[in-house]
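Example 3.2
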Amino acid sequence: MFNKILIANRGEIALRVIRTCKEMGIKTVAIYSKADADSLHVRFADEAVCIGPPPSSESYLNIPRIMAAVEITNADGVHPGYGFLSENANFSEICRQSGVKFIGPTPEMINKMGDKVTAKETMIKAGVPVVPGSEGLLKDVKQGIKIANQIGYPVILKATAGGGGKGMRIVTKDDEFEAAWDSARKEAKASFTNDGIYVEKYVEEPRHIEFQIIGDQFGNVIHLSERDCSIQRRHQKLIEESPSPFMTPELREKMGDAAVKAGKSINYEGVGTIEFLVDKYRNFYFMEMNTRIQVEHPVTEEVIDHDLIKEQIKVAAGIPISGKNYYPKMHAMECRINAEDVFNGFRPSPGKINSFHSPKGHGVRVDTHVYAGYTVPPYYDSMIAKLICKAQTRDECIKKMQRALDEFVIEGIKTTVPFHKCIMKNEKFKSGDFNTGFMNTFSIDDCIE
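Structure, written as tokens:
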């Protein structure tokens, strides 16, 4: 087992890892930028190292500075959290060459699944259903239009190195293709320094359902059932839940088998998710794999009663997994609380939190790194907390979430709490009748009393 783990991340996820490490008797090292000096992850780690000024490029994405912190603290493990360097094959390789365990997949696994075209080819070979589209990257507009006509419009252009909705464009006819191609390539180049684009059939009215998997160093892979992540805005998840209200026992078995098959095809080590699009007829297609712990992992923790960070660390230490799949015992839901003004186009709202009261009670969990007096910096992702509720049924879970949101007090900045209150009252959401297009017809103005 590890003696000391450095958490190469910040905020909520860094604090989450620190808590599990303490319970496992493992010492922890926090890294932080000057903007995060007052964050709780810095306060509760055994050691803390400032690695630079606020910009991510000079701190949380600066591999030499992070590795210097690893060296001076004598850490024998690095937990990357999510975002930043968590799916960076180069960082994983540098850790390996330095004799430090990267708590996640190997560089080879990250490369196989991080590039979406390579991932799709890998899944085809493994027999996992994929969305029809181009075999590899598009060479030019002419080839793209030809393929679009073969598979039928609408189609979606996607950046091969993409994530977070960047480099994606929906095209409905030939005349739109060239403009969408130019726009997607430009955004992909700016976001990922890689303007490779491929095309897929656009699945209309899809659900976004992902399967949590975990694999060990001995070739074993299991799934921990699904999460429904269909409530999204601009391809960014807002609410996640398990089990999916759209799921059937038969579909869960098929998708779970496919997810395990996907993990075994690359001898996957660590926790990760296989992301699927599921159409209204319950046909499912592989979309991508996330080779890291995810923001919404507490949803799965609550329905199967397991600490996924602990399992992640155990796998990295060479401990085999149980070998059996896990299924939801209850219903859980997570609302991402962001520092955003929902009445002003979700504009970021950094600043000082004057008052902070988190909800409590049976089945209510809040993961956060903020507190009254904390200043939310403008340099990073706007998420400041995750509110997770669990109950015996989905209806009870929604009612518990409504109660918890009513108790959540954050003053001094704008947050997405009012948005989530509104969602919990929405009849389509409550009935489970929604897909990834839900936000196209939803308006928070309808909730203003």
